[in-house]
Design a protein that fits this description.
eight-stranded parallel β-sheet; 251 residues; 26% strand; alpha/beta; elongated; Alpha/beta knot; five-stranded mixed β-sheet
């Protein structure tokens, strides 16, 4: 007998929807997502769609109706629960458009639980489009099979961040003046990685960070890294040492 084709097929569109999903319910897809499904993917009634909501995991849905500006999808089955996420925050000084977008995208791909923009004295970007950053995270999650999205926080000044630092969370900060190799600073438990702006931390900021009992200054190697590269490298090292890379499937 011929083999039964995999269902749903690998080419099935996959979308994030910001509403709770439940079995045997119907949801309406509008706007850009509707255009993508009907105008780009040419879906018709009965075609499958994968959905995830950052709450209940990933679901298989089928198109029940295609309208001019919307689609109706019927939820059929839960394919997998929401993935567990390592308790790691990325604290990053805002940098130029394009580069900060890359940081948001890779923070999602690499499994950060939270992205917290941090305003420092040498931060040159005074406004962040959080909606754009979230859109980059969503696109990354859709493409990479993630069922969870990082929390995206409002920007906070470094002084306020340090003044209210939680006692149970390690603070690993990339110190351009030198520190221990990052693998030696990583240990199990809640953690955060702090990356400064293009110009680095001021001496006063560095002193204030080091005054936090949970803070550990680290080095990311012998080469000077751009801020976005430092963030990506530090996330990767942490995930390899204390995160879930050894348990996750490779994509």
């Amino acid at each position: 007998m011929p083999a039964t084709p995999a269902w749903p097929p690998a080419s099935t569109p996959r979308l994030f929807v910001d509403q709770p999903l439940a079995a045997d319910s119907e949801i309406r897809i509008e706007g850009a997502q509707a255009h993508y499904l009907s105008g780009v993917m040419r879906l018709k009634a009965g075609d499958p769609v994968r959905l995830f909501d950052d709450r209940s995991g990933e679901w298989l849905a089928t198109v029940s109706r295609v309208g001019k500006r919307d689609l109706m999808l019927c939820l059929a089955a839960n394919l997998q629960p929401r993935e567990p996420v390592p308790d790691l925050w990325l604290l990053a000084a805002p940098i130029k458009k394009g580069r900060i977008d890359l940081v948001a995208e890779k923070a999602c791909e690499l499994g950060a639980a939270r992205l917290q923009p941090v305003v420092t004295r040498r931060t040159v970007v005074d406004r962040l489009n959080l909606d754009r950053l979230r859109a980059h995270m969503i696109e990354a999650a859709e493409q990479c099979g993630r069922t969870a999205l990082p929390q995206l926080a409002e920007p906070v000044k470094l002084e306020a961040l340090l003044a209210d630092w939680p006692e149970d969370r390690a603070l690993i900060f990339a110190d351009e003046s030198g520190g221990v190799p990052m693998r030696d600073a990583v240990s199990p438990g809640p953690a955060a990685i702090l990356i400064g702006p293009e110009g680095g931390f001021t001496p006063e900021e560095r002193e204030a960070i080091r005054a936090v009992p949970q803070a550990k200054g680290i080095s990311l190697g012998p080469r000077i890294l751009r801020a976005e590269t430092a963030a990506i490298a530090a996330l990767a090292i942490w995930m390899a040492v204390a995160g879930d890379w050894s348990q996750n499937k490779t994509g």
